[in-house]
Specification:
With about 575 residues, this protein is an alpha/beta fold. Helices cover about 50% and strands about 10% of the residues. The chain contains 23 helices and 14 strands.
């Protein structure tokens, strides 16, 4: 567990500097803490209270001092607040209110603070909330699938979660290598080869038997047809020893090429496409196992080689080499995780399907063996239900009844698919409503957010270029005083914190939730406060606020891999 905490801290992006008021208050409180304790080193962190009545920010620093000082948190909070204002009397002019309540120190910022937040967004534009380089290299693996069929809707969820997390980690300052492992070292590749061969033979012999463990989906028919065109009857009378390696390899290569094409069209870009078989052939399995032996993590029993994964939370030790000398699937884990750390990864994150909870303990053993205790994290993407009307569709390749990711993209578009796939937390089940995803109205979450961006673009087109330039320079922000104006500014200010939370807690769904909150606050502002009013100063200030909102919406949609349209009339259904 110490290792996990270490890596969590290392991964935490550098917090961007706060606008002056809150940072000044933090500094003054820190001085008061140091004076009270007689030493420095106690962090003062602020969070946004769930109840807005408790202010804009709050800190529980008094609770951390209560045990040491043997005083009630409320008394400590009151004393710290008094000490902060003694240390910096000018603070009272920058804060609307600061109070000690039930041991918390709550603060409500002045309107000028939120004006400064808008000003900073306009100044930093697409760099607002971006973290400085952390020096941490992350290997992020997701989407990896058997090369035995097209990508299904299930893989679509993993691709969306993984690529959104990769985008956000990079934005936060981490170096991220996005990886896909092609699981082509198991018996499923032979089953694929026999399935493809049966489709090939059925071109001339419709009754040719299909293998019981085969893949009956129609997706093999065009691949078999390609072989009929290029090779004719070359393989009809060949022995299985001749045709099986060829058909297995040919089918794998065609399916992997299709998977790569779909992933790229879906906006999931991979730096590494790694063949598991290649790792075996290159000796990565032997190298990884040698490291496990050196750490005394292996033992022999019943002629097989076992790894002591129970020492790291697994429910049982795992076989890595069978008694007949064949490596197990876990041997593949050994190989490619060893390879990732050998390539310089500080942290490895694997996003796996819902049937992989048991992998955590066995992968922790590998992290410890490779001198990175706690350096492997497993995120489990939970079950998904696809609704088309009232019917639930099976996604089984072996059943031959699947809905492919390409079909999802063609039906609802990339934007809706990615947004819907990311909306729930990865560890929560997802019900994907195709009907809702195609709805062109405010009840469709992605349409609602995109419409907010497009509406602001429309407002800017109706303003003059000179007005837009003045808004970009953040002129007259002091005229923003309506509750809806300040509420929107507060929401925009949260973006860096949302990014940090999405990275630290591996929670990309926070981005889509935040996007919906920004859109809701903007639409409320738009309804209550007409932007292009006669009053010149108010018009420029509201244009500035709208422009800052547009920047934040484009940033958060971009991290999620979703298009930010300038006009809903031109909103594409991309595939």
């Amino acid at each position: 567990m110490e290792g996990i905490r270490y890596y969590r801290e290392a991964m935490r992006p550098m917090a961007p500097a706060q606008t002056d008021g809150l940072e000044r208050f933090r500094t003054a409180l820190s001085r008061a803490v140091a004076e009270m304790m007689g030493s420095d080193g106690v962090a003062v962190d602020f969070e946004t209270p769930r109840n807005p009545q408790h202010g804009d920010f709050a800190t529980n620093v008094a609770f951390g001092l209560a045990k040491t000082m043997r005083r009630a948190p409320q008394a400590i909070a009151t004393a710290l607040l008094e000490g902060a204002f003694r240390a910096d009397p000018g603070l009272q002019e920058m804060l609307q209110d600061a109070s000690a309540l039930a041991g918390f120190i709550n603060v409500r910022m002045s309107a000028a603070y939120w004006h400064n937040a808008v000003r900073r967004i306009l100044r930093e534009n697409n760099d607002y909330g971006r973290g400085a380089p952390t020096g941490v290299h992350v290997s992020l693996e997701f989407g990896s699938a058997n090369p035995t069929g097209p990508l299904s809707a299930v893989q679509g969820r993993t691709l969306s979660v993984g690529s959104t997390l990769a985008n956000t980690m990079r934005f936060a300052g981490h170096a991220v290598t996005v990886e896909w492992i092609t699981n082509d070292a198991g018996t499923q590749i032979d089953a694929l080869g026999r399935s493809l061969y049966a489709r090939y033979r059925q071109h001339w012999e419709p009754e040719y038997p299909f293998p019981e463990d085969g893949y009956p989906g129609d997706y093999l028919l065009p691949i078999a047809g390609e072989l009929v065109q290029t090779d004719g009857q070359r393989w009809v009378h060949a022995s299985e020893r001749e045709w099986l390696p060829f058909f297995s390899r040919f089918g794998r290569d065609r399916i992997v090429a299709e998977q790569q094409s779909v992933a790229e069209s879906f906006g999931a870009h991979f730096d590494v496409w790694q063949s598991e078989k290649a790792l075996h052939d290159q000796g990565a399995v032997e190298a990884g196992i040698a490291r496990l032996r050196a750490m005394n993590l292996t033992y022999e029993r019943d002629g097989a080689l076992w790894v002591r994964t129970t020492e790291y939370g697994d429910d049982e030790d795992r076989v890595v080499i069978r008694s007949d000398g064949r490596p197990t699937y876990y041997a593949g884990d050994v190989a490619y995780h060893y390879d990732k750390f050998a390539r310089g990864a500080d942290l490895v994150i694997d996003i796996l399907g819902p049937d992989h909870h048991g992998y955590i303990g066995r992968l922790n053993a590998l992290a410890a063996a490779y001198d990175h205790p706690g350096g492997i994290e497993v995120l489990v993407s939970q079950q998904m239900t696809l609704k088309r009307g009232e019917h639930t569709v099976s996604l089984s390749k072996r059943g031959g009844n699947i809905v492919t990711l390409r079909e999802i993209m063609e039906e609802v578009g990339v934007d809706a698919a990615r947004f819907f796939f990311v909306m729930p937390s990865p560890d929560s089940p997802l019900t994907f409503d195709l009907t809702l995803a195609k709805e062109q109205s405010d009840v469709n979450p992605v349409f609602y957010v995109q419409y907010g961006h497009a509406r602001i673009a429309s407002i800017e087109r109706r303003a003059t270029p000179e007005q837009c330039e003045r808004a970009a320079r953040a002129e007259h922000l002091e005229r923003l005083s309506e509750p809806e104006e300040l509420a929107l500014a507060k929401r925009l200010h949260e973006f860096p914190r949302v990014v940090r939370g999405a990275v630290e807690f591996r929670a990309p769904h926070r981005l889509t939730r935040y996007a919906r909150e920004v859109a809701a606050d903007f639409h409320q502002f738009y309804t209550a406060c007409r932007v292009l009013v006669e009053d010149d100063e108010v018009r420029i200030a509201r244009l500035a606020l709208a422009r800052a909102t547009k920047t934040i919406l484009a940033l958060v949609l971009g991290l999620a891999g979703v298009f930010a349209p300038e006009s809903m009339e031109r909103l594409p259904v991309t595939s």
